[in-house]
Amino acid sequence: MLPRRAMAVALTLALTAMWPPPRLAAPATGGHVTVTARKPRGRRLSGKSTTASLGCGSKPNNIRGATAAAGGGSKMEAVAASGLRASFLDVLLSRRRNLQVPLTVEPGSPVKHPLYQGRPPMGRCVAMESCPRKGVVNSKEKLVEENFYLITESGEQGRVPVLLLKLNDTTPKRKPVIVFLHSSYKCKEWLRPLLEAYASRGYISVAIDSRYHGERANNNSTYIDALKSAWRNGDAMPFILDTVWDLIKLGDHLSEREDVDPCRIGITGESLGGMHAWFAAVVDTRYSVVVPIIGVQGFRWAIDNNKWQARVDSIKPLFEEARIDLGKSEIDTEVVEKVWDKIAPGLDSQFDAPFSLPVIAPRPLLLLNGAEDPRCPVLGLQEPVSRAAKAYEEVGSADKFMFIAEPGIGHQMTANMVKEASDWFDRFL
User: Fold this and answer.
1) Host domain of residue 312
2) Residue 320 exposed, middle or buried by CB count within 10 Å (0-12, 13-18, 19+)
3) What is the structure's pLDDT at 118?
4) Backbone phi and psi for residue 285, each to the nearest 5 degrees, phi listed first
């Protein structure tokens, strides 16, 4: 019998072979978006304001600087990628309360009683605890923990709680970093087994609470309440996009730290965290190695093929409220489209997976999914994976892209996925 990884890769290859060549479709909002390949640049741009970067260690001199250049691939592809990033930044900026708030750091303390919303996770996460560790003598004593807050904009949600773990050693002086993002209703403390495992191997491990989660939540329904408020008022983007803004600002902070190698910042996450990792890497090229876990899906494909139910069910109270407001007897595709357009503009059109995934090339990208995942259906990833594979091939980086759909697995992060992600970071970061 084939080992589990071999089975997963075999299934992926078989599925890919069945898929037709990607259609050169335009996004729903009009206009043609193509892919790009941009090799990181080591130069630093002058200026005081910081936003999404063009490459490791760089800092654009204004909010548009993040979209100004792309190396590798054709000039047309570079322009298209810059255009997609510019459009993404336009959306993020459209709902920022105050861009004049300087990025500052405030001290924090360890969280003794983490807040889990909905049904709290039961017991330990075996998959995370399976992450490879390095045997370090007195590892607990050598583990350095930092708790602090990044101020990314005005308002209560502009205060980002950060948990950082690393070993107490100074060799090398600058270390690679991996940012970890939690799934819906959880918090950064849930990720501690992964943080400790990677720290033991010499990485700086970082986790944040996404918007309306963990320390950014007040009660058991904060996240759902925020989603409903965004639907009613259109003043925030609590599903994915607002946290992406925080991750851009986190990139600013990490790039300035003396213990961080700014050219070696990886990002990963589970489910909602996988979506955060995906879109943060699209808009901010400082995230140089990317591993979304059970997070990537084709939102437009799900609508067009009536496969949106599982995703909707994960935040169903939001859609129920929208259904009532729209005078519908049941949730249908119109309700789904209107909700996405209100709380995550462009999610099912110009920023959807077929157009945004290829923009990550040539940075190493590993997509990990369950073959039976109803929230991230494999069939809905046909076109995105085909387009991404083509983008990586065109820039001579085919070995830096892989998609693995684990057989018999639904919407679940497994020990195998944790190991694949670990191997990927060790290989490329």
Assistant:
1) 98-428
2) middle
3) 82
4) -75, 0
Examine residue 362 and say whether the peptide bond preceding it is cis (omega within 30 degrees of 0): yes
The CATH number linked to 228 is 3.40.50.1820
Any domain includes 61:
no
Residue 178 falls within a domain, yes or no?
yes
- Give pLDDT tens digits for 94-148: 998 777 789 999 999 999 999 999 876 666 789 999 999 998 777 778 999 999 9
- The verdict on residue 77 lying in a domain is no
Q: Which residue(s) pair with 167 in the sheet?
A: 143
Q: Is 49 exposed, middle or buried (0-12, 13-18, 19+ CB in 10 A)?
A: middle
* Nearest Cα residue to 191 out of 212, 163, 166, 161: 163
Summarised one tens digit per residue, pLDDT across range 13-56 is 444 444 433 332 322 322 222 222 222 222 222 223 334 444 66
Candidates 215, 325, 420; CA nearest to 317 is 325
pLDDT of residue 55: 61
Number of domains in the chain: 1
Where b means 16+ CB within 10 Å and e means fewer, 97-122 reads eeeeeeeeeeeeeebeebbbbeeeee
Question: Which of these ranges, 41-55, 279-293, 310-324, has the smallest mean pLDDT?
Answer: 41-55
- In-domain check, residue 32: no
**What letter represents residue 73's amino acid?**
G
Taking the C-alpha atoms of residue 293 and residue 291, their distance in angstroms, rounded to an integer, is 6
